[in-house]
Amino acid sequence: MALTQARTMPGVMELLPLDQIAFQRMLDTIRGNFERFGFLPIETPVMEFSDVLLTKQGGETERQVYFVQSTGALEKSVAGVPELALRFDLTVPLARYVAEHEHDLNFPFRRYQIQRVYRGERAQRGRFREFYQCDIDVIGKDALSIRYDAEIPAVIYSVFRDLNIGPFTIQLNNRKLMRGFFESQGIGDAERQAHALREVDKLDKRGADYVRDTLMGEGFGLTVDAAKRILDFVQVRSHGHADALDKLDALGGGNATLAEGVAELTQTLELIRAFGVPESHYAINLSIARGLDYYTGTVYETTLNEHPQIGSICSGGRYENLASNYTKSHLPGVGISIGATRLFYQLREAGLLGTAASTVKVLVTQMDEAHLPRYLELANELRSAGIATEVVLEGGKLGKQFKYADRAGIRFVLVLGSDEIAKGTVTVKDLRKQDQFEVPRTELVKTLRVELEQVEAMPA
Amino acid sequence: MALTQARTMPGVMELLPLDQIAFQRMLDTIRGNFERFGFLPIETPVMEFSDVLLTKQGGETERQVYFVQSTGALEKSVAGVPELALRFDLTVPLARYVAEHEHDLNFPFRRYQIQRVYRGERAQRGRFREFYQCDIDVIGKDALSIRYDAEIPAVIYSVFRDLNIGPFTIQLNNRKLMRGFFESQGIGDAERQAHALREVDKLDKRGADYVRDTLMGEGFGLTVDAAKRILDFVQVRSHGHADALDKLDALGGGNATLAEGVAELTQTLELIRAFGVPESHYAINLSIARGLDYYTGTVYETTLNEHPQIGSICSGGRYENLASNYTKSHLPGVGISIGATRLFYQLREAGLLGTAASTVKVLVTQMDEAHLPRYLELANELRSAGIATEVVLEGGKLGKQFKYADRAGIRFVLVLGSDEIAKGTVTVKDLRKQDQFEVPRTELVKTLRVELEQVEAMPA
């Protein structure tokens, strides 16, 4: 029979087991922190009705959507568009979920969601068609206190501290502040503001000259001074808490929107400190606009201080109304998203991920087939103590069994031969420490537990 | 603007947060046990190339497959079949994975995989188009000891003991035993055997009379005696370890295949006992054939003793060659699959799932807005101790805050007013025990930890 070539589609991340373990640990750390801050899990189906999913989106998004059809033709096409499509983010499904289950949820509704999303992008290095998003959102009914805007950075801080991937900065801005300032500089129209914000968003990529020229060009026609003031504005960065407050204060209250933005961001910063986030880990960055149009207040980006090239590893903000396409209820919210697949990929590329230890901690070797029942008993005891254990069931040379453990990243190898059985001991080979010792059978679990607790830490 | 109705497609299970927590606990219990037995995680993309996914399958499966296409037409159709499709199980992706990464894997390769699969089934109650499968497999290179066939039931036992959903029985059979016996009764041809096995598989649903009539009918033409012997054979069940061995022994060695089957199943049973599985939890059931054609040795089903109507909650077996469509390597294996979505649904229908406690353990109320920084500090302390804590950030009446905690399934509510601050205490309301007490601030974490450890158990 002709063989089919075993291969995956481009643009997906498929990992070997040890890498998968490292990735799983990352997700577990994220999830653990989300839960510690009182966020509740939800999961939504990977497929949504196309009309629900594409309610708002225009052509750009639609071209990136994967449509789904079974050959059984259970699903109809509606006006040429297949009835089902794969979610491209977790925000639209959240909006649909909250609208659908509104009367069964408690508000403020604090949800986390860690699932894969799909985009039919042209394949290129570092771009994924399938990737994990790890989202938290707090959704209020009718209103949601600005205080929640300060809780989000506390979660971000906790997550990235525990991921242990080096120093990072949570960068904050507020869209009102930006909008107000643009207004005061003569860009009052909402559409022109949006356009200007998109141009300003290119500051890091295209540089200050490009942005100034655009602002003075045909679409905007600003004076040199106004363009300069806007450029100065978006280049404001703070270093430390007091500096951030000073810089906000210096912006003054040119108009009501600007004043509101300054007040909100000031209050947010004060509360972030009260949440226990060290001032070394947050700053204002008045260039942050975020692409999505629906952010209306606080916006966040997070960057690794020593790896700016990676870009934002966690972004989000405050929005006015989550689910206006599905319900008349007014549902303001604030949230962030971590693109875990891309983050993992980037960290690996940057050499920031060490070699993961296997989830399997112990290999019970088979020195003598006749003692197999003892090996199984030993493994049972370890497993009952919560120590992940594999038993060699197929004999073979002991050296080969050691080699297997080494290649598989298993740290402890146990040997139990007639000698040990007579003495009531077990020989333990510690492959990480390149060490070997004998312990009384009765002390084994305790000894391994102590050793494992000492060194098991985060992947990095 | 006209609203779009927020709704999900039929045939998917979307849960409210407390149910999602119960479901997540079920998956965590399964995963924890898989890891304790030394299985390694992998994840594969939800989409595979259609030619890879549908290598072997005929029309039946193809009709149930969801095909995927982006409107950007990045993916081509090959002879009218879209290039991509959603996986319909985890076995084909495993075969593809092992063939693709063969040289980077250690054999025996022990993998677990917990992901969703997709089938374009006609929607009906209890049938899902999207559902979780939790699979383990051990894959050998060239050969795989029969001993691994005994380890699988040890994992099954451990999983369902920990899920705590009532007494269950792991039922075993061996396809060789069945094949040999059928041969000895005059059904020697492989195709007729497969046909007969499919008929025998209907024993529970259609009854003995139907199966006997079929075996004596046109397709088979067996004598009354032969049909009776086959029916007697497939109705063999054991009660206890010794009984199972006796009944296997009584089958004798009518031919080589039968003798091999008896020997394999006997050895498997002996090792299952050595693995520490209580004899009350396994039995032979010679009617088990399993639908899939590729099982060649041991086959498993697991049923809940008190809920036979649920059917098998965990099934699998031994197969001769995992990935013959993709590689010339000979890769025998043994594995099982738990359909977690269906299981959860069935357990809930049968009333076997209690109300889950929230992942959020503590709500810090906002008695006095002025003390907000203290509330945040308190929450920080609890979170650092690993206690999932939510803080009320938006004030309001205390009674309303209690009600929120109650509805959300949060057990402990903390009150910290000026009185408590003066005394250095915290008032704790235990909503589960309907109890209220005051503890010194310094004792709070310890007290809550003790309380939480006492009662946090499995969902059931």
Could you characterize the architecture of this molecule?
The structure is a homodimer of 460-residue chains. Helix content of chain A is 40%, strand content 20%. Chain A is of the alpha+beta class and 460 residues long. Chain A folds into 3 domains: 13-46 and 87-164 and 318-341 and 348-356, BirA Bifunctional Protein, domain 2, CATH 3.30.930; 167-305, Bira Bifunctional Protein, Domain 2 (BirA Bifunctional Protein, domain 2); 362-455, 3-Layer(aba) Sandwich (Rossmann fold). In chain A, strands 1-7-8-13-12-11-9-10 form an 8-stranded mixed β-sheet. In chain A, strands 15-14-16-17-18 form a 5-stranded mixed β-sheet. The model of chain A has no long low-confidence stretch (mean pLDDT 90).
Explain briefly what this protein structure is:
Chain A has 460 residues and is an alpha+beta fold. In chain A, 40% of the residues lie in helices and 20% in strands.
Which terms summarize this structure?
alpha+beta, Rossmann fold, 17 helices, 3 domains, 460 residues, BirA Bifunctional Protein, domain 2, homodimer, eight-stranded mixed beta sheet, five-stranded mixed beta sheet
